[in-house]
Each structure stands twice: as C-alpha cells, then as structure tokens.
C-alpha cells in the first residue's frame, strides 16, 4: 500500500460544554476511571465504564485538569490525547506527578513534542518568568489545538515554535502511522502504510537556542514517537554545557526502531555525558515511590519490551532537588 497524504483539516469546533453542565453519567464515569489509574487493569476498567456510562455522540467540552488549567477536548470516541486526559484526569500519571513536584518558578521548560499542551500548561502554571516555557509542535493541526488551550488559560509566558527537532536542519514530512491519531505523528516512516503529513521545518535544539535567542532550558520533556535519539543528537551542546538540563523522556523501543535507532543508543550517549536514569512508576499513589533507578538492559530480548517514561538527571546538578521531592534516596 503506498503512502497517502494525511488529512490537513479539522471539523469545525462546536460550542463547548462546561464541566458544570456535563451529564451526571459522564461525571460518574470520569470519577470511576480517574480513581482506577493505579490499578493494572485500568485500561479494561476504562473501556467498560466508557461503554456503559459514556456519551453516545461526540461532545466538545472544556474541563479543568488536576493541575488547575483548562483543556479543550472531545471526550467521546476521538481517541485523542485530550480525550484521554478528560477521562483519566492526567495526561500520564508518572510525568505529570513528577513535573508537578519538580518544576520551580525560576525554571525554563522546553516541551519537545508539545501536542495539545498538557505539559506546556502544567509548566506555565508553575514558572513565573516571561517566555520561560518553549513548546515545539510541528503539526499545524495539533499546534492549533495547543494555541486554543493557551488562549483558554491566558498563558502569556509560553513561546510556541513550529519546528520539529532532529540532528540536522532543513525540511521533512511528518508521518502518521496507519491506525493512529495525530499524536503519533513522527519524522520516522518505516511503513508504506504511513500517511504523509505536512512538510515541516526541522532544526537542531542547539541551533534553536543559539540562533532563535531562546533561554537555555533547565528542564526538557521529549516525546517524539521514537525520534528521541535524533533529537538528542541535535542537542549535544546544551546537554554537555555547564548547566545540563534535566530530561523527561519517553522510552519506547518499538518506536525507536521504527526511527532506525534504539533506546540503548540514546541511553548510552546520555550516560557518556554523565546522565543517570530514573524510571517513573505509573502506579504510584504519590511522589514518594514515583521514581526508581534504571539502567538500560544490554540483552536485546529485554530491550524489545521497553516502553516507559524516564527521567535523565545529572547527579552533580539535579540530585539535591530530586532528594527534596523524595525521588532519590
């Protein structure tokens, strides 16, 4: 099957329903699903509850996330990331809880692969400096969702960049894997069934910092659907500098191999720069017990199963703050 252009348009956004006017069945369903997030069978619980109590048609809503900001979402049947946050309360429990505890008012936060902006908005509520949150989101449709959420929250300390971060500069197409939504768009295409998305500008993070006059980051979240190795390769100067940032990274070996790399490649490269790793526990009920030391397996058969969120920290720069929030002994 040959690659086909992805749809670039979106349905018109209907009038949003505020949380206070949601049907009672929907609020009951959300409450059950949010409370089930520490259970290992939470996906099955969510599917059953949504089938029994969820709305029968698409409903555009604006809801308040646990971190206090507003998010616009279609909670029924879209399978989008705002949809997931509507039902679960958080984007992802591990990174959300960690960043909520770690971020400080004087930080500079980069959200690489910002999507609709959950982590961007979470950082914007905690960081006080003007333009101290930089969100990189290359897909124009997703960037429009991000812009809408920023307007909802009057978030004026966020800089939105349209570039995709990689290890080179130029232009490239985004690809949307077959059967996946816009959240899965990536610069990698290992399948001819992937839909060809828009052509976007590609740059290195080092160039973004030096040429675009962006403030150097102190915390970087990276979720680029397997392209992490390339994005980190383009950030060598920042990572090896006198004040290396703490990183929150999605590690998924299947996605990394689709991008022609491996989690082991970028984990080893970061290790050579002095970084160490913590794995975030998606089942933790509080910050205590949220993170545990992690080393990348050397057995290829074990690497195949990696799919989790990691914190990459430099002991000489980040250990004290990690101890203060009970993420290091």
Write the layout of secondary structure elements.
Layout: E1 17-18, H1 24-35, H2 42-53, E2 61-64, E3 70-73, H3 81-88, H4 93-102, E4 109-112, H5 118-124, E5 133-136, H6 140-152, E6 158-161, E7 164-165, E8 170-176, E9 195-203, H7 205-211, E10 219-222, H8 228-233, H9 236-239, E11 246-252, H10 253-258, H11 263-272, E12 276-280, E13 291-294, H12 300-303, E14 307-313, H13 315-324
Parallel strand pairs: 1-2, 4-5, 4-10, 5-6, 7-9, 10-11
Antiparallel strand pairs: 2-3, 8-9, 11-14, 12-13, 12-14
Euclidean distance between termini CA atoms: 52 Å
Q: Give the second-level CATH assignment, the architecture of the largest domain.
A: 3-Layer(aba) Sandwich
Mean pLDDT figure: 83
CATH fold call of the largest domain: Rossmann fold
Radius of gyration: 19 Å
Beta-strand content estimate: 15-25%
User: Mind telling me the CATH class of the largest domain?
Assistant: Alpha Beta
Largest sheet: 8 strands, mixed
User: Looking at this structure, what is the CATH superfamily of the largest domain?
Assistant: Vaccinia Virus protein VP39
SS elements, strand count: 14
Please give the count of helices.
13
SSE string = EHHEEHHEHEHEEEEHEHHEHHEEHEH
Spans of 5+ residues with little confidence (pLDDT < 50)?
A: 1-14
Q: Into how many domains do the coordinates divide?
A: 2
């Amino acid at each position: 099957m040959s690659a086909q252009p992805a749809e670039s348009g979106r349905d018109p956004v209907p009038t949003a329903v505020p949380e206070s006017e949601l049907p009672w069945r929907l609020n009951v369903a959300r409450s059950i699903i949010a409370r089930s997030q520490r259970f290992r069978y939470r996906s099955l619980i969510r599917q059953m509850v949504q089938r029994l109590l969820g709305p029968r048609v698409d409903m555009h809503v604006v809801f308040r996330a646990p971190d206090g900001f507003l998010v616009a979402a279609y909670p029924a049947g879209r399978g989008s990331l705002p949809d997931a946050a509507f039902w679960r309360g958080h984007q992802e429990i591990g990174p959300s809880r960690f960043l909520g505890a770690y971020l400080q008012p004087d930080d500079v936060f980069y959200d690489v692969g910002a999507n609709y902006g959950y982590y961007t908005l979470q950082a914007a509520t905690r960081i006080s400096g003007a333009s101290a949150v930089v969100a990189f989101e290359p897909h124009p449709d997703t960037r429009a969702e991000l812009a809408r959420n920023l307007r909802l929250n009057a978030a004026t300390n966020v800089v939105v960049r349209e570039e995709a971060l990689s290890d080179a500069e130029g232009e490239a197409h985004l690809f949307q894997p077959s059967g996946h939504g816009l959240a899965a768009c990536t610069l990698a295409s290992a399948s001819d069934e992937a839909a060809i998305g828009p052509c976007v500008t590609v740059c290195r993070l080092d160039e973004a910092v030096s040429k675009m006059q962006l403030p150097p980051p102190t915390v970087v979240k990276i979720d680029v659907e397997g392209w992490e190795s390339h994005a980190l390769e383009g950030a060598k100067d920042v990572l090896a500098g006198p004040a290396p940032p703490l990183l929150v990274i999605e590690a998924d070996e299947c996605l990394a191999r689709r991008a022609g790399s491996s989690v082991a490649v970028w984990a080893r490269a970061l290790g050579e720069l002095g970084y160490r790793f913590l794995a975030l526990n998606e089942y933790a009920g509080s910050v205590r017990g949220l993170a545990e030391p992690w080393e990348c397996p050397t057995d290829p058969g074990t690497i195949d199963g990696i799919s989790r969120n990691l914190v990459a920290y430099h002991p000489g720069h980040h250990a004290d703050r990690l101890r203060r929030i009970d993420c290091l002994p």
